[in-house]
Design a protein that fits this description.
four-stranded antiparallel beta sheet; about 50% helix; 15 strands
Length: about 500
């Protein structure tokens, strides 16, 4: 027992002596001599230490782009981790039928390939500034470290790593799950706003072009356009354009714009990035978010006409002088608006087809709007929004798709009357689908659902007629008032002229 106490006492004395010598060394040795000693001591340790370390960061280029090597290594090590690692992370594979296990941070495993032994370790560095958020810290760095003996350097760099990357990409293709991304920003404990980052969930929307309520010819036209784009890598390179394409979906609410996006994603097997402009701090952050998107993806900005008042920014600049003098409340509101987001129309245009848009490829950019007339023409011109798709009210061809989806029927004696009413009445596919869905909710038969639709169409037609008559009446009253006002002004003018003649006693002809 005394020997153990003496051992701890000696260890403490030794540590104190080392710390004292280190303090004396840092205080009294010249900086040039310190650098000289550190440099040669490092060379000595490297000479004696036989292992090489290679780091693979999650992001390349100062976090500007996701590293394909990191993803491939992560997929490659998933199989090794389940067999050897003690701490694992679990995720759900396609259709929630199985789990995929990966190595947790701080864990290390070994791998043997053609008689060569290597070590893999997963690491992450967390930010020093504490943050309170449900989202991952934007400045958290994740990376893998590969360790191997220096005698195996040539084999590892020329053979083993190529094998790892190839196997990782193959595993990723077999287990690929489409994801729905959204951008979000969090606030730290001090109220400081962190950078906007992408977070994701599995994309499980079931919409397809077969279930999309639209004319069959238009659907085929859109599908052919998508196929040409997805196979056009060499063509886009030949003509010197970035491999991307823009789609503008416009029409009244409830006409299936979001469903169209889901159908496009399912048809091409692309990821979806739902970009919320109001959470993006400025143009630089917007550009970074673009670069972090993956290939084979659809970038969506819904209700673009409502995002940050982009359509009116040019007019705001013209009225700058008028707004210089503002009351304190208005000025405070202006400052808050600026604090929330400083994304400009110019920044968005560069996001769509500027130089940075060529970073990566096979991307589709989709804008949706209920009011296409409000958008700046520069935003939706050809080359930015290459294809404009009008999502209109439900007509007979679209109704037949809905009848097949909800009632599982392709023909019925009431189809004729429904077709005639749909051509005369504006009703959105969402409203039609809600009526047909009563079969599931109230357990009604097909004919009852169709009769309910006929009654709803007749009611909508009558309401539209009354609305049109009311608008015509108001218009007529407005014109009558304007005409009466003109007559009154003419009479007043004639009266004033007569008074002037009487006073002057002269009539000019």
């Amino acid at each position: 027992m005394m020997m153990k106490g003496e051992m701890w006492s000696n260890l403490g004395s030794t540590m104190a002596a080392i710390m004292f010598m280190h303090a004396m060394f840092r205080q009294y040795f010249p900086p040039q001599l310190q650098d000289y000693i550190f440099r040669y001591s490092k060379k000595l340790s490297n000479f004696m230490y036989p292992y090489v370390h290679v780091t693979f960061d999650e992001f390349a280029g100062e976090r500007m782009k996701s590293s394909e090597a990191f993803s491939a290594i992560q997929n490659y090590l998933s199989g090794k981790s389940s067999s050897y690692a003690k701490r694992l992370k679990a995720d759900v594979l396609k259709d929630s039928r199985s789990l995929v296990l990966s190595m947790d941070y701080g864990e290390e495993i070994t791998d043997d390939f053609d008689g060569v032994k290597v070590w893999w370790a997963a690491r992450r560095s967390t930010p020093k500034t504490p943050q309170f958020s449900v989202y991952p810290a934007s400045d958290e760095k994740r990376f893998y470290i590969l360790k191997f003996h220096k005698r195996d350097r040539e084999f590892v760099t020329r053979t083993y790593l190529i094998h790892v990357l190839k196997q990782g990409k193959t595993i990723a293709a077999d287990n690929r799950q489409r994801k729905l991304y959204s951008n979000s920003a969090s606030n730290g404990l001090s109220g400081h706003r962190s950078a906007c980052t992408w977070t994701h969930v599995l994309f499980e929307h079931p919409a397809t072009f077969d279930t999309l309520a639209m004319d069959a010819k238009r659907k085929e036209e859109i599908k052919k356009d998508l196929v040409k784009f997805s196979k056009g890598k060499e063509y886009y390179a030949k003509i010197g354009k970035a491999w991307k394409r823009g789609y503008l979906l416009y029409g009244p609410p409830g006409t299936g714009k979001s469903t169209m996006i889901a159908a496009m994603a399912n048809f091409l097997n692309y990821d979806v990035y739902d970009l919320e402009l109001t959470t993006v701090k400025n143009n630089v952050e917007l550009r970074r978010l673009l670069i972090e998107t993956s290939n084979k993806s659809i970038i969506v900005i819904e209700d673009i006409d409502c995002s940050l008042h982009l359509t009116g920014q040019r007019e705001k600049r013209k009225k700058k002088d008028e707004n210089e003098e503002m009351d304190p409340i208005s000025k405070k509101a202006k400052e808050e608006e600026k604090k929330d987001s400083e994304v400009t129309l110019s920044g968005l245009l560069n996001f769509i087809d500027g130089i940075w848009s060529a970073c990566g490829g096979e991307r589709i950019i989709v804008f949706t709007t209920n009011h296409v007339e409000k958008l700046d023409p520069a935003l939706i011109r050809k080359g930015r929004m290459d294809k404009h798709i009008e999502m209109s009210y439900c007509r007979f061809e679209a109704f037949k798709v809905l009848a097949k989806n909800y009632l599982d029927i392709e023909t019925h004696p009431l189809f004729g009357e429904i077709g005639r009413l749909l051509e005369e009445t504006d009703m959105t596919p969402a409203d039609v689908a809600e009526i047909l869905m009563l079969k599931l909710v109230d357990d009604e038969d097909d004919e009852t659902c169709l009769k309910n639709l006929i009654e709803a169409l007749k009611a909508a037609k009558e309401e539209a007629r009354k609305k049109a008559e009311e608008e015509a009446r108001l218009k007529a009253e407005k014109e009558h008032k304007e005409k009466a006002q003109y007559v009154k002004e003419d009479v007043e003018q004639d009266t004033m002229s007569a008074i002037e003649v009487k006073e002057n006693g002269v009539i000019h002809i």
